[in-house]
Design brief:
It is a single chain. By secondary structure, the chain is an alpha+beta fold. The protein has a single domain, classed as Sufe protein. Chain: A (Alpha-Beta Complex). It is built from 5 helices and 4 strands; from the N terminus they run αβββααααβ. It has a 4-stranded mixed beta sheet with strand order 3-2-1-4, covered by helices on one side. α1 crosses α2. The longest helix is centred in the last third of the chain and has 19 residues.
Length: 157
């Protein structure tokens, strides 16, 4: 039987090698760029919110390490179809889990979706990698809030 660590690694490898939603959303109405100068990760998140503030489509372009790509891929997969306020709650929950908490506390995601997110929890042990895992999430927040400034991982904790 596969242990959790192996399952997590498999999910990260799969999303890292075959990122979901790696493209430019047509007719997007929000977007933001993120950059991690330490390891060169770059991400551009495209969002199409409908009139009910629901994520009609989300995608990203960019390049980076496997963790950065896998995280962006998993993120776009999980927030598609969610409402803006749900997306913000998922982002907040994920960022707290990556930094200090052991579990995800939101009630929005299904268990199998939480497993996908939890696979990134291993980066806690490697502080430099936390920024790789969180870059796309901070960039998504910037896109939703429409701040129009590039996210630089040097400036986020």
């Amino acid at each position: 039987m596969m242990d959790l660590k192996e399952l997590y690694q498999e999910i990260i490898l799969d999303h890292g090698k075959n990122p979901r939603n790696l493209r430019k959303t047509e007719n997007y109405n929000k977007d933001a760029k993120g950059h991690n100068p330490l390891c060169g990760d770059k991400v551009h998140v495209y969002l199409k919110l409908d009139e009910d503030k629901k994520v009609h489509d989300i995608s990203f372009e960019g390049q980076g390490c496997a963790i950065s790509m896998a995280s962006a891929s998993i993120m776009t997969d999980l927030v598609k179809g969610k409402e803006e306020h749900e997306v913000k709650e998922i982002v907040k929950d994920f960022l707290e889990m990556i930094k200090e908490k052991d579990q995800l506390n939101n009630k929005i995601l299904e268990d199998n979706e939480k497993t996908k997110l939890m696979c990134l929890s291993g980066v806690k042990k490697y502080p430099m990698r936390v920024k790789c895992a969180t870059l796309s999430w901070h960039t998504l927040t910037s896109a939703i809030d429409n701040t129009q400034q590039e996210i630089n991982s040097e400036n986020i904790d």
